[in-house]
Specification:
single chain, three-stranded antiparallel β-sheet, two-stranded antiparallel sheet, 37% helix
């Protein structure tokens, strides 16, 4: 169906042009000089967060860091309102990171560095694996994250 913003589908499946105030077919709409095409938002492809997911995100905690309002990188003096809670194991393992406390607070600069610099991210992945393995076994970690970052 055309994306003319004046085109509306009636209950009887006929198309009506709001501008011309009459029933038309799709070919007439495409040739119409009054036709104004709608533009799709870039945000329309982004999946909206469910209530359940947003509730989990609000209840995030960390097994290493007690204060999630300060950037965890030493020497960083970013104010608390610019700090983001970042899941260490991202992608498909994001929900398991939230569930098991694999969350670290990072400022915008270090958050971008975490996602762009593999070595920087690997430091935190190893650190969280070591902390988890203090109270659990490596097999449990492999069952959760599916790979080991320690040798």
């Amino acid at each position: 169906m055309a994306n003319c913003k004046y085109l509306k589908q009636k209950i009887n499946r006929k198309l009506e042009c709001k501008k011309q105030k009459k029933i038309i077919n799709i070919r007439e709409c495409n040739r119409c000089p009054l036709c104004e095409w709608t533009t799709k938002d870039n945000n329309s492809n982004i999946k909206k967060r469910t209530y359940k997911q947003s509730k989990k995100e609000k209840q995030r905690y960390s097994i290493i860091y007690k204060d999630l309002t300060k950037c965890c990188v030493e020497g960083c003096l970013t104010p608390y309102y610019n700090v983001e809670k970042n899941e260490v194991y991202e992608g498909a393992k994001r929900s398991t990171s939230i569930k098991n406390g694999f969350v670290c607070p990072l400022c915008k600069i270090h958050h971008d560095q975490f996602h762009n610099d593999r070595e920087f991210a690997l430091i935190y992945k190893k650190m969280f694996q070591r902390k988890f393995e203090e109270t659990h076994s490596r097999e449990e970690f492999l069952g959760i994250v599916y790979c080991s970052y320690l040798k």
